[in-house]
Amino acid sequence: MSTDTPSATGDGEPMSEDALQERIEELEEQVASLETEVGDGQKKMTIVATQGTFDMAYPPLILASTAAAFGWDVVVFHTFWGLDILHEEKSSDLKLSAVGNPNMPMPNALAALPGMDRMATRMMEKRIDENGTATIEELIDLSLDQGVELQACQMTIELMEYDEDDFYDGVTTGVGAATALQHMAESDVQLLV
Predict the structure, then answer these.
(1) Strand ranges across the sheet with 149-153
(2) Is the pLDDT of residue 1 over 50?
(3) Residue 124: its pLDDT value, please?
(4) Is the pTM of this model over 0.90?
(5) Is 188 left (phi over 0), alpha (psi -120 to 50) or beta?
(6) Which end of the chain is least crowded, N or C, by CB within 10 Å?
(7) Which alpha helices (H) appear in 95-153, and where do they start and end?
(8) Residues forming beta bridges with residue 191, ordered by sequence position
(9) Are 74 and 149 a contacting pair, CB within 8 Å?
(10) Residues 15, 157: contact at Cβ < 8 Å?
(11) Do 83 and 76 contact (CB within 8 A), yes or no?
């Protein structure tokens, strides 16, 4: 078994230890440079979630977790009623609005009756359960596990008089509009839901 130092030139001459160390450092720099280039090519998505109804909690979470599964850098900025999606107590009681919903199989006069929103929500919850679709809480957990940054608007937290401890673990609280705009400006895809 040979103990010769490997040849870097291909001419059969062994490399000195210093030359070998120098070549290793050059290769490490090249790898670091390539990793930076690949990282810069990562797609970015920003979603602004403004609605806090049961049916409107799903689109931003499904889109965010799917994009993250494809390796995208994803931020979902929750503001105004959309903030209720991230509020642990309120998210468990989101309702599907029957009034003005063109896909509801009932006229608005009937949909406006007391209890119709709760009935419509229960019907949708039943369908979700029977279909094996993820719950809102499961989608929040999945999104966070996938690396999605779920942001809670600071101004809305103050406006609604929420406490930062009211939100799911892993939610980024205290985010201002300027931070959200910066991510939007850098994003390949921006969505308002």
Answers:
(1) 172-175, 149-153, 73-78, 44-49, 189-192
(2) no
(3) 83
(4) no
(5) alpha
(6) N
(7) 108-111, 116-131, 136-145
(8) 47
(9) yes
(10) no
(11) no
Question: 6 phi and psi, to 5 degrees?
Answer: -60, 155
Would you put residue 100 in left (φ > 0), alpha (ψ -120 to 50) or beta? left
34 has pLDDT over 70: no
Task: Give whole-number Cα distances, 67 to 78, 117, 175, in Å.
Answer: 17, 31, 22
Q: How many CB atoms lie within 10 A of CB 8?
A: 14
**pLDDT tens per residue across span 48-78:** 999 999 989 999 999 999 999 999 999 999 9
Residue in 144, 193, 145, 138 with CA at minimum distance from that of residue 172: 144
CA–CA distance, 97 with 37 (Å, rounded to integer) = 46
pLDDT band at 29 (very low <50, low <70, confident <90, very high): confident
Nearest to 146 by CA among 39, 62, 69: 69
Structure tokens at 8: 């870097």
Strand runs labelled E in 36-95: 44-49, 73-78
Structure tokens at 56: 């409107």
Closest by Cα among 66, 65, 64 to 45: 64
Residue in the structure block whose two tokens are 């642990």: 88
Count of C-beta atoms within a 10 Å radius of residue 31 = 10
Largest CA distance in the chain: 90
